[in-house]
Amino acid sequence: MTLIQRSIRPKSSDPVRCHRPASSSPRVIYPFSSPRATGAKDLSFFTYHLLRTERPQLRIRCTHAMSSLAYKEMDRFSAPARLMIVSDLDNTMVDHHDPENTSLLRFNAMWESIYRHNSLLVFSTGRSPTLYKQLRKEKPLLTPDITIMSVGTEITYGDSMVPDEGWEVVLNKAWNRNIALEEAGKFPQLKLQPETEQRPHKVSFYVDKGHAQEVLKSLPGIFKSRGLDVKIIYSGGIDLDILPQGAGKGEALSYLLKKFKEAGKLPLNTLACGDSGNDAELFSISDVYGVMVSNAQEELLQWHAENAKGNSKIIHATERCAAGIIEAIAHFGLGPNISPRDSLDLLSYKPEDINPAIILVTLYIAYERWRQAAAENYESFIQSLKTICHPSGTIIHPSGVEQSLHEWIDTLRPYYGDKQGKKFLVWVDRAFTSKIGSDTLLVKFDKWELTDEGRNGCVTTFVLNSKPDSPGSFSLVHIHQTWLEGFAASTDDAWIF
Ligand code: GLC
Ligand code: MG
Q: Which of 119, 247, 321, 474 fits a disulfide with 115 by CB distance 3.0 to 4.6 angstroms?
């Protein structure tokens, strides 16, 4: 019998409707709270430190957290962001040499559990929207708050990627893409990039390192003689982009910072992250910290040596890609740099850093490892789930089928280790917590899975009950999932939760 065939109740459309279990005094439990665990990679150990309330020191920490901003419904832009990360994607956030995506997943878990609720994530890529969407299908990327594409020529906001039309107006000034295309097209050394990468304010070519210098020398004069004020950027030892002078990753970031400042919401700290030539501009903006990841390209390191050597706000990390970003957060003291995937001692968290999102981030890491048979054994995961889920709690599968949480847990046995040796990545995205009652929290997030069959995702709501006299302890009383548009699994039973 499959997971959903067992279900008997009708579809519910209201995620909050059944959040209160029938029992008048819900049992308060500690998810994955087994104190027997010892290994540094052990999740039980990890959450044990987070949620155990027998330890007075931690009880104080959690109490503070309950009353802190982390528990209120956050208007994302009601206050300045605590940290804004502006990161390039290829070979910075995404390590194309790491098929396991280890450091990207570490970053994701850190971001969702510590930063998402009060910080801003900005991706700044050379890719066009088409190639950016392609990368999202292939890699376990979070959804950024702001996406800057096509080398700083396109800025969009949110999940639905609403374009910044004001930026388009700025770039239209003194730009004529036909002239750019016509003049550059006269150079036989330049090979036009694919159609998707030719954008309203970006004309792009390939040129090998051997020919780049001569082209870069002659082009500016030619454009000048045609009255065109352009910027020419060489990246990755192969790509040559021609943009309006006022465009580029740095100009786009300055534009955003100016907008935030005008609104009185300048982020408290901004960290720019990159690896290649088109990222250099990001490191020229004052009051912005910068990390060139360890695997940075020669052209960026050379730019740094010539232009920013004495600047202590810019580092060349010792770690590759997303691990280099995590390293920079620690180096500049921008906040905690602990990822739940590393299972480090949570005592190093400060009260204001603790967010309920950490519970679901940890839960899904344990779930990924359980299906891969990588860490948790069958029984300890099931027992932990039973402990966290309230006996009269319910789950609504994205197919619409509703079931008792405990009955559902009993159907999970066949899935233990079924992804062993296969690609199976799980991550939490856009996690936000709101307090919907004196002892009830609602955490809404997107939960993603990436397998060889593709990417599937659900908008997910967890309703957690906390006990006022035992802050920091939660009981999961309801789970509700609906498919994210375009990301439904091919069959209903290919998705568990
Ligand atoms: C990305 C874009 C490409 C651009 C390069 C460097 O690879 O797809 O058009 O030339 O970044 O900016
Ligand atoms: Mg790059």
A: 119
